Amino acid sequence: MKVLVVNHEEVKRYLPMSDCMEAMENALTLLNSGHAMNPLRNVLWLPDKAGLMAMMPASLSKPAVMGLKAISVFPGNSKTGFDSHQGVVMLFETRNGRLLAVIDATEVTAIRTAAVSGVATRLLAREDASELAILGAGTQARKHLEAMLEARHIKRVRVWNRSLENAERFAENTAGRYHLEVKAVASAREAAAAADIICTTTSAVEPVLAGGWIAPGTHINAVGACIPTARELDSEAVVNSKLYVDRRESTLAEAGDFIIPQKKGRLDAGHIIGEIGELLSGQITGRTGPDDITLFKSLGLAVEDVAAAQLLYSKLSETNGGIRVELNAKRGE
Q1: Of 52, 188, 306, 327, which sits most exposed with the smallest number of CB within 10 A?
Q2: Domain at 126-297, CATH from 3.40.50.720, 3.30.360.10, 3.30.365.10, 3.40.640.10
């Protein structure tokens, strides 16, 4: 049997943000209804803590597929030209367990992460939200701008990065592409102060967003920190927000933005209002008034990767795109 191999350029071409957002809605709804399985990721740290490898399995029932993302995370790669997240997503069918596709995980991760934030923003941000702050100026910052433009009518963008030069480059590159007012600012506080949507997309281990900077009515997508010892938001920012997550189990085990204030006694598990899948299914409510501060804490789930891989496999099978490699021979062949 031939296995489809998909590179990063084909992922970008065949996984547009709007399609990916639709696939993420479906995946999170299936997970909420019990028609998907998503164990906690297994993480292997290198001895010097310079990087890690994560193994993330999941399965979906509609369509019936399963998969595994094997990905390395090296935050220091911002200085090398390589992406911080690198690896592959492997897609399998569930009748005989055959491998169907091997797909570049760097681009899948970038697009599906932003797509889930886009779904959360549609559900939780004010309808008239139009002022966007992005903290960070890397891959996730670029993809989150794209997702926020799908979710809301964005008029102005302020971007902050520890390197003002990088923020200015981001502003210059994206302003022309999207015909937007995009301004690089010197501080995270300045970026957040005028925003009604904030996306934190950094590799920070200490807070870059303080609760005192966040205006009533703001929606926040917290994306960058994904281990128990790192966070992008201070305790006040989390405590003052209505908190929604991709999955409770993952948040309680992995999210430093939640775990650190929990250990300080500032909040407990009851502070989590619910999962995005529960919002999509109408089991819980979202924003109840214009002054609510809503927070979506994203960790990234394997079901999202598998759903994106399935969508890519379906599209490329129809168009005969990608490369096909002979693997999975039957016994005796």
Answers
A1: 327
A2: 3.40.50.720
